[in-house]
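User: Can you write out an input/output pair for a complex, sequences first and structure second?

Assistant: Here is one pair. Inputs:
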Amino acid sequence: MVSVSDVPGAQGLSRDQLREVYFKMFLARSVGERERMLNRMGKGPFAVTGEGHEAAQVGTAYAMTPGKDWALTYYRDIGVALTLGMTPRDLLLAHLARAESIESGGRNMPSHFSSVDLRIVSGSAPVATQVPHAVGIALASKLRGLDEVAVTYFGDGGASVGDVHEAMNFAGVHSLPVIFVCENNQYAISVPASKQAAVTDLSVRAQGYGFPGVTVDGNDVLAVYSAAREAVERARNGDGPTFIEAKTYRLVPHTSDDDDSRYRSREEVEEWRKKGPLVRFGAWLEENGVATKDEIGEIEAKAMAEIDAATEYAEAAPTPDPASAMRHVFVEEE
Amino acid sequence: MAEKTMVEAVRDALHDEMKRDERVFVLGEDVGRGGVFRATEGLRDEFGEDRCMDTPLAEATIVGASIGASLNGLLPVAEIQFADFIHPAFDQIVSEAARLHYRSNGAWSCPITVRTPYGAGVHGGPYHSQSIEAFYAHVPGLKVICVASPYDAKGLLKSAIRDPNPVMFLEHKKAYRSFREEVPDEDYTIPIGVAERKREGSDMTLVTYGLMTRYSLEAAAAVQGDGGISVEVIDLRTVSPWDKECVLESVRKTGKALIVYEDNLTGGFGAEVAATIAEDAFDFLDGPVTRIASPDVPLAPYSGVLEEFILPNPEKIAEGIRKLAAY
């Protein structure tokens, strides 16, 4: 019998955990695809998803303690939300703007993840405004003597926003337990990375804020997990922030309203699809004897069954009471 | 009870709330050494630098970090050094603080207070003089308070800090030290959204807030003396939510309304007051709803003579009262 830790390169993850990681990645991919499909069927007015980002998202979130650590996501982070415990049902209820959506009850656009219980803070659409919130949460964590870590996500476009600079600087000055994760998919809608920054690796910026920065292969889930686990340990031990740049590729248009053929070739997308995170991790599981092809098929079938059931549930769920649009402008006091 | 300046009253309120509730902390530029107006003086010595925290010079993140800290169990009171410098934080205030509760269907809330000195009349030039209340009064989900008196400052700041919503607390800088007033030592609060009738009158209703309350009272006393015009003066104190009932009740009694504000005329908060009076008290009016405000030039030019020319003052207000009374 092979001991789990003997699987080379598994980063200490057990066989079950490695399979769970694959499950979450496949679930994230498939929820995104389902949302795009429902959009094309005219059922959801809008879809913004993150196919291709699964390793960056699941790899980082898997290093967090759900419900204890805080996640400040952006609109591609389906994999973060699902790894921390939101369900396909939660996301599809949000996609269809149903009353019982825990994200927003139909108020916010889909993929603006939120769960008070899971400490996934409700997000907005202006890019990178969530990054200072992570810093404030980490500040409170430090002032209150808690060992909670805040992890915030943004893209390569978001990395250009002033809030990110301000937030990183603040976090460095106060040595806060916060992790900045940049999912660098090399395009901010249509603007390529070369027009976004004059450096190849955005992580070098961390040096200017006085904390470590690392660039990882964002399509290698175990490499991402390894970097994230180290960053979480640093933060939890009071050693301050880390900037993780996960280099990846968005396999789909920016949103359901985007046509990415205007700015990148089909050949380029196809090349990246071949080295996508699910293809790679699936092959790794087989090569290392963690799961057979059939077992991977079973994991995928389980995910699809969950998504099918969630779709059915969400489609049947009621829309919000129109008059409820007037509520919750302010806290309703007892 | 002692006579205090407004800046002392602000400091008292901060001190008392920090003492009362250990979740309360202040953060901002230079607050550790008391801030440029000395509103936080002594707080670091008593409560430590974790609760009176100097931040990097970055307004968006002063507010953004406050939002985050409020989500994780604290009650931040952010100081923005001058209202004129709050604009980089507009996105955090409007997109984030104001919308978080609504967009999450009531799941998240954001109990922050943002204090900032505003207003002209101190030779502050175009970047230490602005009035910003109309920008924020326009945004659902924010409460906006304008104070220019020691008594109100203490009572309303305590209410702001205890409020479960984001509150913009605007302190007129010319009122910080220009006069003293009796301020009780003990704990008291003034409810947000309630106006105060500062002077009873029968010929017209003058609606105002901020430093213009003081100028309007001077004008009302002057016209009573030399022309026998009886002006009822209402200080809104809070511009969002604002006390419509108090204003409408008064206008229905007097039949005339004059609105006085320091901000630029166009789109200033007084425009909203005027529209509401026109709509809800039309049958009671026997004169045009009138506004006195600064003309539409950037507030405020540095030179004393230029500034004096632009800003409303007791003489200009008295002239407006006489004109409306003669209608």
